[in-house]
Amino acid sequence: MNRRTFGRLTVLGALGALAGATAEAAAPTPVSDNSSRKNYRPTLSSLRSHPSPEWFDDVKFGMFIDYGLYSVAGYAPKKEKGAMYPDWYLQRMYDDPATAKYHAEKWGKDFQRDDFIPLFTADNFDPEKIAQIAEETGMRYVVPFCKHHDGFCLWPSSFTHRNVATMGPKRDLIGPLNDACRKRNLKFGFYFSLEEWEYPVLQDGTKMLRTWTKLDGEPDKIVPYDEAAVAGKIAGKIPVKDFIGDYIIPQANEFVDKYDPDILWLDGDWTAMAEEIGSPEIVSHFYNQAEGRKEVAANDRFGRFLRFNSGDFSTSEYGAKNSERSKVLRKWEECQGASQSFGYNWQDTEKNMKSAEELIDMLVGIVSENGNLLLVVNLDGKGAMPDYMRDRLLEVGRWLK
Predict the structure, then answer these.
(1) At what angle do helices 249-259 and 174-183 cross, to 10 degrees?
(2) Structure pTM?
(3) What is the predicted pLDDT for the residue at 219?
(4) Pairing outcome for strands 187-193 and 141-147
């Protein structure tokens, strides 16, 4: 018996519930412990006492919307195997020779990161349509990229001018998507990077630059602020004394208070310990804000060494779980694209996408191993879902129904 046949026999009932779930089943789950106290402290031991909600085990299938300033460029050098990351374009246009060569030829050697901002208009970003496609595909939760490592926020953050209210589209993109998802009883998530490639900081009244090394185990650096070197890279960022305490933590907590997400999906975690990047403070606020009101879930990307060992579920990216199998003793989630691309890539076509059968087989296999599939869906530079992506998703939805 092959895996497809096995999956259809053993998992079909669980997957069928995705498309046929009632509004009551998908609605926010109230907490039943009769406690409204702020129980969670910003320590790993306290956060590990948080129970993973049953609804996260039930949802099975979600949409990971990879969309941001980088989508305008929409490019990563082709690879024969493995994932490509167009959502890192805004950094790799400076430090990756192949991307830098392409950038100079396509956009010009003087075209900087911030020059993409006026082009990021989101003219075709349609929250209602996106939520409808998620629903018709049989997905039960949606997690949009709200702030990637370049620091451009897709909501009107009051902690930076580098956001969609003051730059680019000049309107909130996250609020309407949140509303559209909740109307359809889809759980809503908050993707948030704990790190940014560069950020201005103040030391003894002098402006400096905090730079993220991005390498496992190498600490971030504070270097002299060079106006020429950062020109065109960090427009809208407000200098702070403490990058984590004055910016990252309050920015994330403000989002949680404003949009009330069901899922906290942290990223940028692999170089620093949790205590150094503020994740315990953010996660405890997230838990406490929902305590006594509804059940919520946080992923495991708290800091270095903590993947598969923190949060309410473990995250696997393009099959990383396969090398961590001994550690996966609880609920887990695979994030993977319908192609090799993490982020919009103009080189993608229907020909290099996974077929509907391959996507179904992947979903069935993951669910049969107690996982959820958070499928990466890339929007183009104007915010539209490419036709080949939409059609493939709807094929999966028809199968589920």
Answers:
(1) 40
(2) 0.91
(3) 72
(4) parallel
